[in-house]
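Quick one before lunch.
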Amino acid sequence: MSLLDTLRAAVGPAFVLTEGDLSAYEIDWRKRYHGRALAVVRPGSSAEVAAVVQACAAHGTSLVPQGGHTGLVGGGTPDASGTQVLLNLGRMNRVRAIDVANLTMTVEAGCVLQAVQEAAAERQLLFPLSLAAEGSCTIGGNLATNAGGTQVLRYGNARDLCLGLEVVTAEGEVWESLTGLRKDNTGYDLRDLFVGSEGTLGVITAATLKLYPQPAAMSTALATVSTLQAAVDLLQLAQARLGPGLTAFEVMNTLSLALVRTHFPQLVQPLPAAPWTVLLEQSDCEGEAHAQALFEALLETALVRGLIDDAAVASSHSQSRAMWHLRESIPLAQSQEGLNIKHDIALPVSSVPGFVAATDAALAQAFPGVRLVDFGHLGDGNLHYNVQSPLGVPAADFLRDCEAAVNTLVYDAVAAHGGSISAEHGIGALKRDELARRKSPVALKLMRAVKAALDPAGTLNPGRML
Ligand code: FAD
Ligand code: ZN
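Model of the zinc ion complex:
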Protein backbone atom coordinates (compact mmCIF):
# COMPACT_ATOMS: atom_id res chain seq x y z
CA MET A 1 0.00 0.00 0.00
CA SER A 2 1.26 3.53 -0.70
CA LEU A 3 2.10 5.76 2.28
CA LEU A 4 -0.89 8.00 1.60
CA ASP A 5 -3.26 5.02 1.50
CA THR A 6 -1.78 3.69 4.75
CA LEU A 7 -2.27 7.11 6.36
CA ARG A 8 -5.87 7.27 5.11
CA ALA A 9 -6.52 3.85 6.58
CA ALA A 10 -4.98 4.94 9.89
CA VAL A 11 -6.83 8.22 10.51
CA GLY A 12 -9.68 8.23 7.98
CA PRO A 13 -9.51 9.77 4.48
CA ALA A 14 -11.11 13.04 5.64
CA PHE A 15 -8.11 13.72 7.86
CA VAL A 16 -5.37 13.29 5.25
CA LEU A 17 -5.27 16.60 3.41
CA THR A 18 -3.37 16.83 0.15
CA GLU A 19 -5.36 19.36 -1.85
CA GLY A 20 -6.89 22.81 -1.49
CA ASP A 21 -5.51 25.73 0.45
CA LEU A 22 -3.10 24.31 3.02
CA SER A 23 -1.31 27.60 3.67
CA ALA A 24 -2.47 27.72 7.31
CA TYR A 25 -0.35 24.60 7.87
CA GLU A 26 2.46 25.37 5.45
CA ILE A 27 3.27 29.04 6.11
CA ASP A 28 4.47 30.07 9.57
CA TRP A 29 2.94 32.86 11.69
CA ARG A 30 5.64 35.37 10.72
CA LYS A 31 5.36 34.35 7.05
CA ARG A 32 9.10 33.68 6.87
CA TYR A 33 8.84 29.98 6.04
CA HIS A 34 6.78 28.75 3.09
CA GLY A 35 6.74 24.97 3.12
CA ARG A 36 4.97 22.28 1.15
CA ALA A 37 3.86 19.03 2.75
CA LEU A 38 3.29 15.64 1.13
CA ALA A 39 0.12 15.58 3.25
CA VAL A 40 -1.33 17.21 6.33
CA VAL A 41 -2.43 14.41 8.65
CA ARG A 42 -4.81 15.10 11.53
CA PRO A 43 -5.05 12.11 13.88
CA GLY A 44 -7.76 11.91 16.55
CA SER A 45 -6.08 9.71 19.16
CA SER A 46 -2.68 8.62 20.48
CA ALA A 47 -3.15 5.23 18.79
CA GLU A 48 -3.68 7.01 15.46
CA VAL A 49 -0.55 9.12 16.04
CA ALA A 50 1.38 5.92 16.69
CA ALA A 51 0.03 4.39 13.46
CA VAL A 52 1.06 7.49 11.48
CA VAL A 53 4.56 7.49 12.97
CA GLN A 54 4.95 3.77 12.23
CA ALA A 55 3.79 4.24 8.63
CA CYS A 56 6.20 7.14 8.06
CA ALA A 57 9.05 5.18 9.66
CA ALA A 58 8.34 2.19 7.39
CA HIS A 59 8.46 4.44 4.31
CA GLY A 60 11.49 6.44 5.52
CA THR A 61 9.36 9.59 5.35
CA SER A 62 10.09 12.41 7.74
CA LEU A 63 7.48 13.97 9.94
CA VAL A 64 6.90 17.49 11.26
CA PRO A 65 4.70 17.71 14.39
CA GLN A 66 2.51 20.81 14.58
CA GLY A 67 0.13 22.26 17.16
CA GLY A 68 -1.33 25.75 16.82
CA HIS A 69 1.42 26.81 14.36
CA THR A 70 2.20 29.99 16.31
CA GLY A 71 5.89 29.18 16.83
CA LEU A 72 8.29 31.99 15.96
CA VAL A 73 11.37 30.03 14.84
CA GLY A 74 10.06 28.00 11.90
CA GLY A 75 10.04 24.70 13.82
CA GLY A 76 6.55 23.52 12.94
CA THR A 77 6.48 24.33 9.21
CA PRO A 78 7.41 21.61 6.69
CA ASP A 79 10.33 22.19 4.36
CA ALA A 80 9.70 23.05 0.69
CA SER A 81 10.46 19.57 -0.67
CA GLY A 82 6.86 18.32 -0.68
CA THR A 83 8.08 15.04 0.86
CA GLN A 84 7.40 15.57 4.59
CA VAL A 85 4.25 14.55 6.40
CA LEU A 86 2.83 17.33 8.55
CA LEU A 87 1.32 15.82 11.70
CA ASN A 88 -1.17 18.33 13.09
CA LEU A 89 -2.40 17.50 16.62
CA GLY A 90 -5.32 19.96 16.59
CA ARG A 91 -8.05 17.29 16.75
CA MET A 92 -6.64 15.83 19.96
CA ASN A 93 -8.21 18.48 22.17
CA ARG A 94 -9.93 16.68 25.04
CA VAL A 95 -9.47 17.42 28.72
CA ARG A 96 -9.05 13.88 30.00
CA ALA A 97 -9.22 14.50 33.76
CA ILE A 98 -9.00 17.12 36.49
CA ASP A 99 -7.87 15.99 39.96
CA VAL A 100 -8.84 18.84 42.27
CA ALA A 101 -7.18 17.44 45.41
CA ASN A 102 -3.94 16.65 43.56
CA LEU A 103 -4.06 20.03 41.78
CA THR A 104 -3.47 18.46 38.36
CA MET A 105 -5.20 18.15 35.03
CA THR A 106 -4.53 15.79 32.16
CA VAL A 107 -5.12 17.14 28.67
CA GLU A 108 -4.43 16.08 25.11
CA ALA A 109 -1.64 17.80 23.21
CA GLY A 110 -3.92 19.64 20.77
CA CYS A 111 -5.82 21.48 23.53
CA VAL A 112 -5.60 25.21 22.94
CA LEU A 113 -3.90 26.93 25.89
CA GLN A 114 -6.84 29.24 26.53
CA ALA A 115 -9.23 26.26 26.69
CA VAL A 116 -6.97 24.66 29.29
CA GLN A 117 -6.97 27.88 31.35
CA GLU A 118 -10.79 27.98 31.09
CA ALA A 119 -11.23 24.33 32.08
CA ALA A 120 -9.12 25.00 35.20
CA ALA A 121 -11.05 28.19 35.97
CA GLU A 122 -14.36 26.28 35.85
CA ARG A 123 -13.06 24.36 38.88
CA GLN A 124 -11.91 27.62 40.55
CA LEU A 125 -8.31 26.65 39.79
CA LEU A 126 -5.52 28.35 37.89
CA PHE A 127 -3.36 27.05 35.06
CA PRO A 128 -0.88 29.92 35.01
CA LEU A 129 0.90 29.56 31.65
CA SER A 130 -0.05 32.70 29.72
CA LEU A 131 1.17 34.21 26.48
CA ALA A 132 -0.19 36.41 23.73
CA ALA A 133 -0.77 33.45 21.40
CA GLU A 134 -2.89 31.58 23.99
CA GLY A 135 -6.03 31.74 21.83
CA SER A 136 -4.42 29.46 19.24
CA CYS A 137 -1.24 27.81 20.57
CA THR A 138 -1.57 24.29 21.99
CA ILE A 139 -0.27 22.56 25.11
CA GLY A 140 1.74 20.17 22.94
CA GLY A 141 3.45 23.12 21.24
CA ASN A 142 3.93 24.92 24.55
CA LEU A 143 5.68 21.87 26.01
CA ALA A 144 7.64 21.10 22.84
CA THR A 145 9.05 24.65 22.90
CA ASN A 146 9.15 24.95 26.73
CA ALA A 147 7.17 28.18 26.36
CA GLY A 148 7.56 30.99 28.86
CA GLY A 149 5.21 33.95 28.74
CA THR A 150 4.19 36.48 31.34
CA GLN A 151 3.84 34.44 34.56
CA VAL A 152 7.23 32.69 34.65
CA LEU A 153 8.45 34.96 37.44
CA ARG A 154 6.03 33.28 39.88
CA TYR A 155 5.01 29.94 38.34
CA GLY A 156 7.88 28.95 36.06
CA ASN A 157 7.84 28.03 32.36
CA ALA A 158 6.00 25.18 30.63
CA ARG A 159 8.57 22.67 31.90
CA ASP A 160 7.93 23.70 35.50
CA LEU A 161 4.18 23.24 35.00
CA CYS A 162 4.41 19.71 33.58
CA LEU A 163 4.30 16.65 35.82
CA GLY A 164 3.70 13.89 33.30
CA LEU A 165 3.67 13.16 29.57
CA GLU A 166 2.34 10.74 27.02
CA VAL A 167 4.65 10.53 24.00
CA VAL A 168 4.68 8.58 20.75
CA THR A 169 8.31 7.62 20.17
CA ALA A 170 10.12 7.70 16.83
CA GLU A 171 9.47 3.95 16.52
CA GLY A 172 5.75 4.52 16.97
CA GLU A 173 5.45 3.18 20.52
CA VAL A 174 3.31 4.97 23.11
CA TRP A 175 5.18 5.92 26.32
CA GLU A 176 2.50 6.70 28.89
CA SER A 177 3.64 8.48 32.03
CA LEU A 178 0.75 10.73 33.01
CA THR A 179 1.52 10.25 36.68
CA GLY A 180 0.73 13.57 38.34
CA LEU A 181 3.52 12.85 40.83
CA ARG A 182 5.50 15.74 42.27
CA LYS A 183 8.28 13.40 43.30
CA ASP A 184 9.56 10.48 41.22
CA ASN A 185 13.27 9.65 41.30
CA THR A 186 13.24 6.49 39.25
CA GLY A 187 16.07 7.08 36.82
CA TYR A 188 16.72 9.51 33.99
CA ASP A 189 14.06 12.18 33.64
CA LEU A 190 12.55 11.20 30.29
CA ARG A 191 9.82 13.84 30.61
CA ASP A 192 12.35 16.63 30.70
CA LEU A 193 14.07 15.25 27.60
CA PHE A 194 10.87 15.65 25.59
CA VAL A 195 9.94 19.06 27.02
CA GLY A 196 11.74 21.64 24.89
CA SER A 197 12.73 19.09 22.21
CA GLU A 198 10.72 20.91 19.49
CA GLY A 199 9.35 17.77 17.91
CA THR A 200 12.80 16.26 17.30
CA LEU A 201 12.63 13.38 19.82
CA GLY A 202 9.00 12.28 19.97
CA VAL A 203 5.40 13.41 19.49
CA ILE A 204 3.76 14.65 22.69
CA THR A 205 0.16 13.40 22.72
CA ALA A 206 -0.97 14.31 26.26
CA ALA A 207 0.31 15.92 29.44
CA THR A 208 -0.48 16.11 33.13
CA LEU A 209 -0.18 19.71 34.26
CA LYS A 210 0.15 21.49 37.60
CA LEU A 211 -2.72 23.64 38.80
CA TYR A 212 -2.80 26.32 41.51
CA PRO A 213 -5.53 27.84 43.65
CA GLN A 214 -6.91 30.98 42.04
CA PRO A 215 -5.75 34.17 43.75
CA ALA A 216 -8.38 36.00 45.80
CA ALA A 217 -7.46 39.35 44.24
CA MET A 218 -5.27 40.69 41.47
CA SER A 219 -3.81 44.16 40.93
CA THR A 220 -2.28 45.56 37.76
CA ALA A 221 -0.42 48.82 37.16
CA LEU A 222 1.57 50.62 34.54
CA ALA A 223 4.48 52.77 35.66
CA THR A 224 6.91 54.87 33.68
CA VAL A 225 10.64 54.90 34.43
CA SER A 226 13.37 56.93 32.84
CA THR A 227 16.04 54.21 32.74
CA LEU A 228 16.20 50.46 32.58
CA GLN A 229 18.28 50.50 35.77
CA ALA A 230 15.33 52.16 37.54
CA ALA A 231 13.12 49.33 36.24
CA VAL A 232 15.55 46.77 37.71
CA ASP A 233 15.55 48.65 41.04
CA LEU A 234 11.74 48.71 40.96
CA LEU A 235 11.72 44.96 40.34
CA GLN A 236 13.91 44.41 43.41
CA LEU A 237 11.66 46.61 45.53
CA ALA A 238 8.53 44.83 44.28
CA GLN A 239 10.05 41.41 45.00
CA ALA A 240 10.98 42.49 48.51
CA ARG A 241 7.53 43.95 49.23
CA LEU A 242 5.27 41.43 47.47
CA GLY A 243 7.33 38.23 47.60
CA PRO A 244 5.62 35.49 45.57
CA GLY A 245 2.67 37.88 45.15
CA LEU A 246 4.56 39.55 42.30
CA THR A 247 3.32 37.49 39.37
CA ALA A 248 4.44 39.57 36.38
CA PHE A 249 6.95 42.30 35.66
CA GLU A 250 7.12 43.35 32.01
CA VAL A 251 8.91 46.25 30.31
CA MET A 252 8.20 48.07 27.03
CA ASN A 253 10.39 50.71 25.43
CA THR A 254 9.13 53.90 23.77
CA LEU A 255 9.00 52.47 20.26
CA SER A 256 7.12 49.31 21.33
CA LEU A 257 4.21 51.40 22.60
CA ALA A 258 4.52 53.90 19.73
CA LEU A 259 3.98 51.04 17.26
CA VAL A 260 0.92 49.94 19.24
CA ARG A 261 -0.36 53.55 19.10
CA THR A 262 0.16 53.63 15.32
CA HIS A 263 -1.36 50.27 14.46
CA PHE A 264 -4.00 50.02 17.21
CA PRO A 265 -5.00 53.66 17.83
CA GLN A 266 -8.22 52.52 19.53
CA LEU A 267 -6.23 51.11 22.50
CA VAL A 268 -6.06 53.66 25.32
CA GLN A 269 -2.57 54.33 26.69
CA PRO A 270 -3.10 55.74 30.18
CA LEU A 271 0.41 57.17 30.67
CA PRO A 272 2.42 59.60 28.53
CA ALA A 273 5.24 58.16 26.42
CA ALA A 274 8.42 57.45 28.42
CA PRO A 275 11.76 55.74 27.80
CA TRP A 276 10.40 52.61 29.49
CA THR A 277 6.96 51.58 30.75
CA VAL A 278 6.66 48.77 33.29
CA LEU A 279 3.62 46.53 33.68
CA LEU A 280 3.37 45.03 37.17
CA GLU A 281 0.89 42.44 38.34
CA GLN A 282 0.24 41.29 41.88
CA SER A 283 -1.75 38.23 42.95
CA ASP A 284 -2.98 38.11 46.52
CA CYS A 285 -4.43 35.18 48.44
CA GLU A 286 -6.10 37.28 51.18
CA GLY A 287 -8.44 39.63 49.32
CA GLU A 288 -9.06 42.99 47.64
CA ALA A 289 -8.34 45.31 50.58
CA HIS A 290 -5.07 43.56 51.46
CA ALA A 291 -3.96 43.54 47.83
CA GLN A 292 -4.78 47.20 47.30
CA ALA A 293 -2.98 48.35 50.45
CA LEU A 294 0.20 46.44 49.60
CA PHE A 295 0.21 47.51 45.95
CA GLU A 296 -0.39 51.19 46.65
CA ALA A 297 2.28 51.24 49.37
CA LEU A 298 4.74 49.73 46.88
CA LEU A 299 4.02 52.34 44.20
CA GLU A 300 4.10 55.16 46.78
CA THR A 301 7.56 54.07 47.95
CA ALA A 302 8.74 53.79 44.34
CA LEU A 303 7.54 57.36 43.65
CA VAL A 304 9.17 58.75 46.81
CA ARG A 305 12.46 57.03 45.95
CA GLY A 306 12.32 58.46 42.46
CA LEU A 307 12.26 55.04 40.78
CA ILE A 308 9.09 55.77 38.84
CA ASP A 309 7.85 58.99 37.29
CA ASP A 310 4.18 58.18 36.97
CA ALA A 311 1.83 55.27 37.60
CA ALA A 312 -1.70 54.16 36.71
CA VAL A 313 -3.38 51.42 38.75
CA ALA A 314 -6.22 49.45 37.14
CA SER A 315 -9.42 49.94 39.10
CA SER A 316 -11.40 47.17 37.41
CA HIS A 317 -10.88 43.85 35.71
CA SER A 318 -11.50 45.46 32.32
CA GLN A 319 -8.88 48.16 32.97
CA SER A 320 -6.41 45.45 33.93
CA ARG A 321 -7.23 43.53 30.73
CA ALA A 322 -6.72 46.75 28.74
CA MET A 323 -3.23 47.19 30.21
CA TRP A 324 -2.32 43.61 29.34
CA HIS A 325 -3.81 44.11 25.91
CA LEU A 326 -1.33 46.94 25.27
CA ARG A 327 1.57 44.67 26.14
CA GLU A 328 0.21 41.74 24.15
CA SER A 329 -0.39 43.88 21.06
CA ILE A 330 3.30 44.66 20.60
CA PRO A 331 4.15 41.53 18.55
CA LEU A 332 1.14 42.18 16.29
CA ALA A 333 1.94 45.89 15.92
CA GLN A 334 5.49 44.94 15.03
CA SER A 335 4.46 42.46 12.39
CA GLN A 336 2.14 45.08 10.87
CA GLU A 337 5.10 47.47 10.75
CA GLY A 338 7.00 44.91 8.65
CA LEU A 339 9.41 42.03 9.13
CA ASN A 340 12.03 42.64 11.81
CA ILE A 341 15.02 40.83 13.21
CA LYS A 342 13.88 39.15 16.39
CA HIS A 343 16.12 38.27 19.33
CA ASP A 344 14.54 36.36 22.20
CA ILE A 345 17.39 36.64 24.67
CA ALA A 346 17.96 35.79 28.32
CA LEU A 347 20.43 37.62 30.55
CA PRO A 348 21.04 37.82 34.28
CA VAL A 349 18.59 40.57 35.36
CA SER A 350 21.51 42.57 36.75
CA SER A 351 23.16 42.63 33.29
CA VAL A 352 20.13 43.81 31.33
CA PRO A 353 20.69 47.61 31.62
CA GLY A 354 24.38 47.33 30.68
CA PHE A 355 23.61 45.02 27.77
CA VAL A 356 20.92 47.30 26.35
CA ALA A 357 23.01 50.47 26.69
CA ALA A 358 26.05 48.93 25.01
CA THR A 359 24.14 47.08 22.28
CA ASP A 360 21.80 49.97 21.42
CA ALA A 361 24.85 52.19 20.94
CA ALA A 362 26.75 49.61 18.86
CA LEU A 363 23.73 49.02 16.60
CA ALA A 364 23.11 52.75 16.14
CA GLN A 365 26.69 53.19 15.05
CA ALA A 366 26.82 50.18 12.72
CA PHE A 367 23.33 50.61 11.22
CA PRO A 368 22.41 54.31 11.39
CA GLY A 369 18.69 54.98 11.87
CA VAL A 370 17.92 51.44 12.96
CA ARG A 371 14.83 51.20 15.21
CA LEU A 372 14.85 49.10 18.38
CA VAL A 373 11.63 47.51 19.57
CA ASP A 374 12.57 46.25 23.03
CA PHE A 375 10.08 44.69 25.37
CA GLY A 376 9.66 41.58 27.42
CA HIS A 377 9.76 39.77 30.68
CA LEU A 378 12.30 41.77 32.71
CA GLY A 379 11.39 39.79 35.83
CA ASP A 380 12.93 36.73 34.14
CA GLY A 381 15.79 38.60 32.46
CA ASN A 382 14.11 37.82 29.11
CA LEU A 383 14.04 40.57 26.51
CA HIS A 384 12.52 40.57 23.05
CA TYR A 385 15.27 42.71 21.61
CA ASN A 386 14.00 43.30 18.09
CA VAL A 387 15.60 45.33 15.34
CA GLN A 388 13.40 47.09 12.80
CA SER A 389 14.64 48.72 9.58
CA PRO A 390 15.36 52.47 9.56
CA LEU A 391 12.36 54.57 8.54
CA GLY A 392 12.10 54.61 4.77
CA VAL A 393 14.15 51.44 4.27
CA PRO A 394 11.97 48.51 3.11
CA ALA A 395 12.05 45.73 5.72
CA ALA A 396 12.89 43.06 3.13
CA ASP A 397 15.95 45.00 1.91
CA PHE A 398 17.14 45.59 5.46
CA LEU A 399 16.81 41.91 6.36
CA ARG A 400 18.56 40.78 3.17
CA ASP A 401 21.48 43.17 3.65
CA CYS A 402 21.88 43.34 7.42
CA GLU A 403 20.31 40.39 9.22
CA ALA A 404 23.46 38.31 9.54
CA ALA A 405 25.58 41.24 10.73
CA VAL A 406 22.91 42.42 13.19
CA ASN A 407 22.64 38.91 14.63
CA THR A 408 26.39 38.61 15.05
CA LEU A 409 26.58 41.95 16.83
CA VAL A 410 23.65 41.19 19.15
CA TYR A 411 24.57 37.58 19.93
CA ASP A 412 28.24 38.48 20.57
CA ALA A 413 26.97 41.03 23.10
CA VAL A 414 24.63 38.43 24.63
CA ALA A 415 27.57 36.04 25.03
CA ALA A 416 29.74 38.79 26.54
CA HIS A 417 27.02 39.45 29.12
CA GLY A 418 26.57 35.78 30.03
CA GLY A 419 23.23 35.33 28.25
CA SER A 420 21.37 32.87 26.00
CA ILE A 421 20.31 33.28 22.35
CA SER A 422 16.92 31.70 23.05
CA ALA A 423 15.01 32.35 26.24
CA GLU A 424 11.59 30.95 25.33
CA HIS A 425 10.92 30.65 21.57
CA GLY A 426 13.34 27.79 20.91
CA ILE A 427 15.78 27.09 18.07
CA GLY A 428 13.71 25.64 15.20
CA ALA A 429 15.09 26.40 11.76
CA LEU A 430 15.78 30.06 12.47
CA LYS A 431 18.56 29.67 15.05
CA ARG A 432 19.93 26.25 14.16
CA ASP A 433 23.18 27.53 12.69
CA GLU A 434 23.60 30.07 15.47
CA LEU A 435 23.20 27.28 18.04
CA ALA A 436 25.86 25.21 16.27
CA ARG A 437 28.22 28.19 16.44
CA ARG A 438 27.54 29.18 20.02
CA LYS A 439 26.69 26.10 22.10
CA SER A 440 29.69 24.36 23.62
CA PRO A 441 31.04 21.43 21.57
CA VAL A 442 30.51 19.09 24.52
CA ALA A 443 26.86 20.14 24.87
CA LEU A 444 26.29 19.68 21.13
CA LYS A 445 27.88 16.22 21.24
CA LEU A 446 25.57 15.19 24.09
CA MET A 447 22.53 16.62 22.29
CA ARG A 448 23.40 14.69 19.12
CA ALA A 449 23.84 11.52 21.19
CA VAL A 450 20.35 11.96 22.66
CA LYS A 451 18.88 12.55 19.20
CA ALA A 452 20.65 9.46 17.81
CA ALA A 453 19.42 7.32 20.71
CA LEU A 454 15.77 8.40 20.52
CA ASP A 455 15.40 8.93 16.77
CA PRO A 456 18.15 6.88 15.12
CA ALA A 457 16.64 7.14 11.63
CA GLY A 458 16.31 10.92 11.98
CA THR A 459 12.72 11.07 10.77
CA LEU A 460 11.33 13.42 13.46
CA ASN A 461 11.52 17.09 12.43
CA PRO A 462 14.91 16.77 10.69
CA GLY A 463 16.97 19.91 10.23
CA ARG A 464 15.38 21.60 13.23
CA MET A 465 17.43 22.50 16.29
CA LEU A 466 20.42 20.29 15.37
P1 FAD B 1 3.68 25.09 16.89
O1 FAD B 1 4.04 26.43 16.39
O2 FAD B 1 2.70 24.31 16.12
O3 FAD B 1 5.02 24.21 17.05
C1 FAD B 1 6.14 24.71 17.72
C2 FAD B 1 7.22 23.61 17.80
O4 FAD B 1 6.77 22.55 18.61
C3 FAD B 1 7.56 23.01 16.45
O5 FAD B 1 8.92 22.66 16.44
C4 FAD B 1 6.70 21.75 16.41
O6 FAD B 1 7.27 20.75 15.58
C5 FAD B 1 6.68 21.33 17.85
N1 FAD B 1 5.44 20.70 18.28
C6 FAD B 1 4.19 21.22 18.28
N2 FAD B 1 3.31 20.35 18.81
C7 FAD B 1 4.03 19.25 19.17
C8 FAD B 1 3.68 18.00 19.77
N3 FAD B 1 2.45 17.72 20.13
N4 FAD B 1 4.68 17.11 19.99
C9 FAD B 1 5.96 17.38 19.64
N5 FAD B 1 6.33 18.54 19.05
C10 FAD B 1 5.38 19.46 18.83
N6 FAD B 1 6.36 31.93 23.25
C11 FAD B 1 6.73 32.05 24.54
O7 FAD B 1 7.42 31.18 25.06
N7 FAD B 1 6.38 33.15 25.27
C12 FAD B 1 5.62 34.14 24.76
O8 FAD B 1 5.33 35.11 25.44
C13 FAD B 1 5.18 34.01 23.41
N8 FAD B 1 4.41 34.95 22.85
C14 FAD B 1 3.98 34.77 21.58
C15 FAD B 1 3.14 35.74 21.03
C16 FAD B 1 2.65 35.62 19.74
C17 FAD B 1 1.73 36.66 19.19
C18 FAD B 1 3.03 34.49 18.97
C19 FAD B 1 2.51 34.30 17.58
C20 FAD B 1 3.87 33.52 19.51
C21 FAD B 1 4.36 33.65 20.79
N9 FAD B 1 5.22 32.72 21.37
C22 FAD B 1 5.60 32.86 22.68
C23 FAD B 1 5.77 31.58 20.58
C24 FAD B 1 5.46 30.22 21.17
O9 FAD B 1 6.48 29.31 20.88
C25 FAD B 1 4.16 29.64 20.73
O10 FAD B 1 3.11 30.54 20.79
C26 FAD B 1 3.72 28.32 21.40
O11 FAD B 1 4.43 27.86 22.52
C27 FAD B 1 3.80 27.26 20.35
O12 FAD B 1 2.67 26.46 20.42
P2 FAD B 1 1.99 25.94 19.07
O13 FAD B 1 0.97 24.94 19.50
O14 FAD B 1 1.55 27.03 18.22
O15 FAD B 1 3.24 25.15 18.43
ZN1 ZN C 1 7.80 36.56 25.40
